[in-house]
Amino acid sequence: MTGRAAARSRYRGALALLAALAVAGCGTLGGGPSAEKQDPALANAQPNIGSLSEVIEQHPNDPQAYNMRGSVYGEAGQTEQALADFTKAISLDPNYAQAYANRGLVYRKSNQLDLALADFNKALSIDPNYAPAYVGRGSVYSQQGRHEQALADRRAGSLDHQRFSGHGASPAGDERR
């Protein structure tokens, strides 16, 4: 386990740098004729997806890389690819609360509320202080008309976020993003 943690730590910096460079490059890349026909969100995400895919090729057992690429796919509206990457991240690290919460978000956005709720609950069972999972579960509750539970979760998520936002750490006390 310590070897796995050390490997994750080594790649964390490289992944963060790679992601930052890819995001920075997005604004300067010109779209060719094929980019005009493509969804603009996907066209903007392609450099990030390509960079993260290279990281995954080099480190196929790194759940953080799959989680990051899944996030890019999700933001680009590529639901199936996002779900596949989050599921792979979870299979590599079954205690990766953020991957469960991210997959829950994609399920919620695609109106698969029962699956979203299950993932947010799993994220909170792994890390009871993970604020984004409370916020996500609160959104599901709101969509289901469970307003009291929605408000309680949104408050819990907001309080956890406020408590940790000034310290440079995620509510989970983990640097994974």
How would you characterize the overall build of this protein?
The chain is an all-alpha fold. The chain folds into 2 domains: 1-94, Tetratricopeptide repeat domain (Serine Threonine Protein Phosphatase 5, Tetratricopeptide repeat, Alpha Horseshoe); 112-177, Serine Threonine Protein Phosphatase 5, Tetratricopeptide repeat (Alpha Horseshoe). It has 9 helices and no strands. Helix 4 packs antiparallel against helix 5. The chain is globular, with a radius of gyration of 17 Å. The chain starts with a helix and ends in a 12-residue tail after the last helix.
CATH fold-level name of the largest domain: Serine Threonine Protein Phosphatase 5, Tetratricopeptide repeat
Distance between the termini: 20 Å
**Cα-atom radius of gyration:** 17 Å
CATH architecture name of the largest domain: Alpha Horseshoe
* Strand coverage percent: under 5%
Write out the CATH superfamily name of the largest domain: Tetratricopeptide repeat domain
Key descriptive features of the protein:
9 helices, 76% helix, Serine Threonine Protein Phosphatase 5, Tetratricopeptide repeat, disordered C terminus, 2 domains, mainly alpha, 177 residues
Write the layout of secondary structure elements.
Elements: H1 2-26, H2 33-37, H3 40-58, H4 63-75, H5 79-92, H6 97-109, H7 113-126, H8 131-143, H9 147-165
Quick recap:
The protein contains nine helices and no strands. It is mainly α and 177 residues long. The chain folds into two domains: 1-94, Tetratricopeptide repeat domain (Serine Threonine Protein Phosphatase 5, Tetratricopeptide repeat), CATH 1.25.40; 112-177, Serine Threonine Protein Phosphatase 5, Tetratricopeptide repeat (Alpha Horseshoe), CATH 1.25.40.
